[in-house]
Amino acid sequence: MTDEEDAVVAKPRPFWVAGRPRTSDDILDVHHPYDGTDVASVAMPTAEHVEQAVAAAVAVIREFRSTPAHVRATALDHVSRTLTERSEEIAETITAENGKPLKWAEVEVARAASTFRFAAEEARRFVGELQRLDTDGNGEGRLGIVRRRPRGPVLAVAPFNFPLNLVAHKVAPALAVGAPVIIKPASATPLSALMLGEILAETDLPLGAFSVLPVRGSAMSALVTDPRLPVISFTGSTGVGWGIMDAAPRKHVVMELGSNSAAIICPDWTDLDHAARRIATFGNYQGGQSCIAVQRVIVHRDVAEKFVPKLVSAVRALRTGDPHDPEVDVGPLIDLDNAERVADWIAEATAAGAKVLTGGERSGTTVQPTVLADVPTDAKVWREEVFGPVLVVSVVDSVDEAFEQANGTDFGLQAGVFTRDVQTAFRAAAELEVGGVVIGDVPSFRADQMPYGGVKGSGTGREGVRSAMVDYTQEQTMVLSGLDL
User: Fold this and answer.
1) Is the pTM of this model over 0.85?
2) Exactly one of 106, 266, 291, 463 is catalytic; which is it?
3) How far is CA 256 from CA 58, 253, 382, 419, in A?
4) Is 348 a catalytic site residue?
5) Do 402 and 300 meet the contact criterion of CB atoms below 8 Å apart?
């Protein structure tokens, strides 16, 4: 067994510096959110390791951006295939560190594999464009070539709620365009990113093309402010995101932040059972810990009497418990502090007159899926991102009122509109202050190959493979002269 193979199976688990496994005496223990048991220990990078990673990323810029597209695509294809081959092992790891039910961890692995496959395909066709310049007299005999060149190394800061796929959303596009990437996984969930580092190390990418650094505190701040890392891609809480923007004002910062997604049930929608099941599932499937989870359910009065009991029934049918049980639908929150916070927000709403239609109880880190009605619009569960398994139901008298309520938040990531009326669908797209509108389904539908992001307080950029590739690059124009066109 080689030294690298020894490091991969060692305890504590290594981090990755410029494609090589490294260890240290500083240890981070990872605990299971469901029962607090020890999952693994992870070595933490020292300041010297962080400097080595950044220096290696800078040193490899020219080589990596000039790497043939087929080399980058082959590496991305390898990651996609390996994620699929090791899907059971990786899904178990996601469940152990994150607490999401195994059925959803399996979906996350499949999505990450697709993300790398999409990136491999885009790496082969991300070619820029030609532009005729002889449309004006002084441009005769000239041809413009517009190409996209990497801005430089990318600092990829990932959240805990999708510890593999949201890392993939940052890493795959960076590698596709030839930009070195330094991955900073969430401290609560570093294991999936470290496993990804192990898979990336099996490729022929140049040393320095990637590092995985589970840093915290001052080391994280040093990466954010380091001028050698001109691009930051961040997904996480709104406060932390804007703090990064303030700390790095001259950098290209791409952020996906908080949300408070609404699902609107219009009076023409007839399949209320389907809508209830979709909203119940995707308001709670990550324990509500998803920026695209449904939080507010806005129902037209014409269908409210039939719909609300169906929603409550669908939520009650969700099974909570050990997330490793394949029958469990809703697992724990990431830690006790967050579970207590969600319970406090529910209590605050009920004290102000809200009614609990189902759920509302907490046991350890698990909060029972909850449906609230008659919630004051100044309650936290209505106006802020709860990031927990809570649905707030509101009944309105018109589609206009529904749109007004949906816009009554500081976040604008996505909205779902259950309607079969084309005019209403286009009105929703025009009037809702969100980055994406899903017609006939919940906001939690997400296509990894499409542009994805928000407006208002939900971020400054777009995820999705090609969108991120554009964010990580800038246009370079070359003009050829003296041509016989």
Assistant:
1) yes
2) 291
3) 26, 10, 20, 28
4) no
5) yes
